[in-house]
Design a protein that fits this description.
By secondary structure, this protein is α+β, with helices and mostly antiparallel strands. It is built from two helices and ten strands. This is Sortase family protein.
């Protein structure tokens, strides 16, 4: 009996040892499986990262970080001063007209287009009107000034405009004292209802100042003179 008991006890110990060995094997297998899974995941992540880096090298996409920028009111701001490029000579906003040979020194009003579609005229017979929808005197193109030859009070500012001769000078002054000088280059007379407005108001690459006034007989029915005198002048450059 003692020998049989000893044999059974030995078999039980062997069974327990087998169970322990089996448990350790299972634990080792699970650990190895987890290690393999983590290794595969790390490898896949590394491959993905490498692919993204390759794409970034192929197509450069800059990023701009704002962290750390100084947004305080004391932060300096750099500004650029831009100087406009002029395509021609600069004109002036006309303030006064002087014509030494005619002893004219007249104020200049701004005029536009009247209700009848023609250039407006100054309200005061002693003043001259600048057509402000055209160029400034002294700029490229044809600036135009108009004045009355007479009014209800008698002779007006341009009463003697026809006396201007070739080479006579005309001065335009702005309100800051700047002066632009022109000289007479031509004169012409047009019918009141002329269609040759391009001669006086049309575009030009020259720097012109055209002076207009009425001339000819007075038409009682039209309430105006039948003709227009135009004196063409050109800017004098030194």
């Amino acid at each position: 009996m003692g020998a049989l008991y000893s044999l059974l006890q030995l078999e039980n110990m062997r069974s327990i040892d087998k169970l322990i060995i089996l448990g350790l094997s299972v634990m080792l297998l699970l650990s190895l499986s987890q290690f393999i899974a983590e290794t595969v995941e790390d490898t896949a992540y590394a491959a993905t990262l490498t692919s993204q880096q390759a794409n970034q090298r192929t197509v450069f996409q800059p990023t701009f970080k704002s962290d750390g920028w100084d947004r305080s009111e004391t932060a300096s701001v750099r500004t650029l001063a831009l100087t406009p490029v002029r395509s021609g000579p600069a004109g002036v906003i006309p303030h006064r007209l002087t014509i030494p040979s005619l002893h004219i020194d007249a104020a200049i009003e701004r005029v536009g287009i009247a209700a009848d579609g023609k250039m407006g005229v100054p309200d005061d017979g002693d003043n001259v009107g600048w057509f402000e929808k055209g160029p400034q005197p002294g700029a490229s193109g044809q600036a135009v000034l108009a004045g009355h030859v007479d009014d209800q009070g008698g002779a007006a500012v341009f009463y003697h405009l026809s006396d201007l001769a070739l080479g006579d000078v005309v001065h335009i002054h702005d309100d800051k004292g700047q002066q632009v000088t022109f000289k007479v280059i031509d004169k012409a007379v047009y019918p009141y209802d002329t269609t040759a407005v391009a001669d006086v108001f049309g575009p030009s690459s020259d720097t012109r100042l055209n002076l207009i006034t009425c001339t000819g007989e007075f038409d009682q029915q039209a309430r105006t003179h039948r003709e227009r005198l135009v004196v063409f002048t050109e800017r004098v450059t030194h």
